[in-house]
Specification:
Layout: E1 2-5, E2 12-15, E3 21-25, H1 28-33, E4 37-39, H2 42-47, E5 49-51, E6 58-61, E7 68-73, E8 79-84, E9 91-96, E10 100-101, E11 109-113
Length: 146
Amino acid sequence: MIRAACHCGSVRFEIAEPPQWVLDCNCTICRRYGGLWTYFRGPEGQAKLLMTPDPAATEAYTWQDGDIAMHRCKTCGCVTHLVAAKADPPVIFGVNCRMMAGLDPAKVVIRRVDNSHSGFFWTRPDEPVSASRHPVMPPPTFDDWR
C-alpha cells in the first residue's frame, strides 16, 4: 500500500499498490504545477483507491470545457489530484505522485507526453543529484504521511 498526502496532511490518499509508471505532462497547466501523475481509470482503477480525501479539504481549478478539475489543498495549496468533473458523480482519476511517501522513483517508469508540443521537459537524468541545504529529517515510516 502507498500513502499520499499534501504538505499539511489535510488531503490524504491510500492506494492499494505503487504505480508502475507516472506521467510527466508538459502541458501549460501540468508544467506549472510540476505534478507527476498516476491514473485510476475504470472500475478496477477506482478499486485501487482505498482512501480518498474529504472533498471539503480541496478546491478545484477548471479551464476550457471543464472536463478536468485540478484539485489542491485549501490549507497548504499542494496540487493533489485530478477529477473527471463531468462524470456523474465526479471521479478521481489521477493522483500527484509527488505526494506519495515510500514510492521509490527508481522503480517507476516516467512516461513523458509532449502535450505542449515543445519537446521540453524538466525530468531528465542530465546531472547527478545535488546535496540539500535543508536539515536532515528522519526517513518516513509507514505511519508518516510525508
